[in-house]
Amino acid sequence: MRRRASRPASMICANSRSSSAVSSATAPISSRYRPIASLMTCVLSCPVHSLPVERLGVLGGTFDPPHIGHVAAGLYTLDQLRLDRVLFVVANDPWQKSADRPVTPAADRLAMVEAAVEGHPGLEVSTVDIDRGGPSYTVDTVADLEASHPGAAIWLVLGVDAAAGMPTWHRWEDLAGRVRIALLDRPGAVRHDPPGFAVDAVHMPEIDVSSTDLRRSLVAGRPVGGLVPEAVHSVIERRGIYRRP
Q1: Whole-number Å distance between alpha carbons of 145 and 177
Q2: Is 50 exceeded by the pLDDT of residue 89?
Q3: Radius of gyration of the chain measured on its C-alpha atoms
Q4: What is the pLDDT of residue 245?
Q5: Of 24, 30, 116, 201, which sees the most CB atoms within 10 A?
Q6: What is the CATH architecture assignment of 53-239?
Q7: Residue of 93, 94, 87, 72 lying closest to 126 (CA atoms)
């Protein structure tokens, strides 16, 4: 009896692939695209909390002028809380300060802040308050950022003194449950956390610098050393900010 010749393995594999291809080609469309349909169903129906959430820090201020302490606060917060970015929001009209003293025009303060954050990935400038105009209220800032960054988790970056003063803010209670506080907890500071807010401490060294002292020195023509980033100092000189009339 003659034995039936066996087919080469390569032929078997080729035939198998051919058979599989034919089977796939002749299968009903609904069957062939079932994996894609399943994927689309997951994308459309998976819970929102399973998708990545943007982690956004908001460091608002007058920045008159911005200094190394502001930059350090942004960098420490970005790193310790693992945020995607920290927005430096330049106040248009800082109503709690403008009633007591002249405030440098917003365009000049914006130019200084842009120079301060340049070269620091993750630190960005937001003009949301300037674009809105009028007095700058944090509750309005947050509402605008919620609209432009839907679903984002928002941290307000505050020093200990600013956090303690939150009850003096316009409609500050409306922020509870919508934002967390990134509290710049310097050594030896006495904390008075605002009630009703989740607080995450950001530990950073004491940096003895204030915008008020810097502004007085600049107006008087005194050197400010390295307390103001060099790029900011260049903007001050170029635009003639803080020169006596």
Answers
A1: 15
A2: yes
A3: 29
A4: 65
A5: 116
A6: 3-Layer(aba) Sandwich (3.40)
A7: 87
